[in-house]
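Re: the request from the purification team.
They wanted to know what the chain is likely to look like in 3D before they choose a buffer screen. I agreed to run a prediction and write the result into the notebook, where they can find it.
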Amino acid sequence: MNTRPDQDRRAFLKASAALAALAVWPLGCASRMPLSTFSPAATGRKKRPALVRGAFFYPPAEDVLAGRAEDNWSQHKWFTWPGNQFQPDQQRLLFLARLRELTAGLNLNLALEEKPLCTNEAIASFIASLEAAKPDALLLFNFWNSFSPKLKPILAAYQGPIILYHPVGANHQLPPEYFRTAPRTQYIHSIENWDALERGLRAVHAWNQMTQSRLLRVSGRLQQEADAIEPLFRTPIHGVPADHFNKIYDDTPVTEEVRRLAREIRRGARRITDLADEAFLDAARAHVAVGEIMRRHEADAITIECLFLKHRKPCLSFALNNGRLVPCGCENDLNASLTLMLGAYCFGRGGFQHNPEFDTEQNLYFASHCTCTTRLRGPGEKEAAYDLRPFFHQMPKTLALDVQWPPGETVTLCKYQSGKNQLDAWRGTVICSPGCPPTGGCATRALVRLEGVPDVCRVYAGPHPILYCGDFARHLGVFAQLYQLQIRTNVPVSRETLPA
């Protein structure tokens, strides 16, 4: 639940004071890159890092050899699985080093117990400490087969998201069913699966960012400013009339900076079709206006009812900002905008909000719209090739990007639906960016084959889903598991997230 900044600060200081009394090994807080690095549209509002408490679970070798380990093998001085050659102390150091790498750039504060927990008393103390310093998530590493039952009280006591890593070979026979089916738990039973661990950490980071971000909605249907709260993330939503944006735009002069942006966009295009010089200046002025209205309202993301803004349409601005991880959703679509925010935080990629179409003869998915970023693989990566052409549907002929999606690239089609607590996450492969004609739609067009989907029309989740370049469907599967959302997908996920 969101609170005022002074309340957040008091709560964080209280938690920090409680942590100071514990024997913890802080891995540090690696703040994400400030939004101002990506775009002048960013506000740079600071966000509290998510506090992730955690521990490793295994007995010291000397306790095993002395018969002091708290398990049913102690009388035999027996090293149960993973055995006496697993070297859990060295494995722990390896995991700590990888955690530092995995959390670089994420707004997380990891605080792991300094020593492994190996007694019921120590675990009870750990559980009690969670109440004093409420974390945003738990990160548990079980390195000892006979210690699995010791973690059950933690799973029962903590009602938030839990990442539970259990190496293959640190278990005997079937993995514990109470691990595999625990609610709000990502159970990773694998061999050095850093990708799975990163998915869990990114999910916690994304949730934390969503709860502290502010979405600005610009609508011609509003007569005055209005506030709302998104029910799941508790994201503040501030609405303003479209006239506010129009006035900012109309007051924006054609400066040398505006002309420079217009020249850069023109210079980067492969070809330009039917666009006047004025269209480039209009698009650049819209980019300045989007940045200014976000700055005035301290917004982290924006969506605008943009179809009837005439020459003020912000298609270029939205494409630029999404590529810089400043989420911008068109047509005042709440679900699309929240999905763009979730993807920016969870994947570190800008998404392509689009309208879906379907080639039912070839069972292919067709995505088309006017605000696709050229930074398909993320900020700082090589741009995709693009043409410039007019927005398809009305005069005047405003500028839009025709971005060429790379054939063979793995993509993720997703959508979050507010109020339903539902996610869609479909993995596919780009076939091509078909020309217009013979296809219609809008400025950017991508044709995709979705994996293992017998009827492509069944993936329809309403207008304006988001297409991401990259394989992120399992990221959303983990997110759904940790935060108890239903998910429709074509990739393996926990049974707890499957729709009824």
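For the purification team: Confidence is low (pLDDT under 50) at residues 1-42, 496-500.
Please add any questions underneath this entry.
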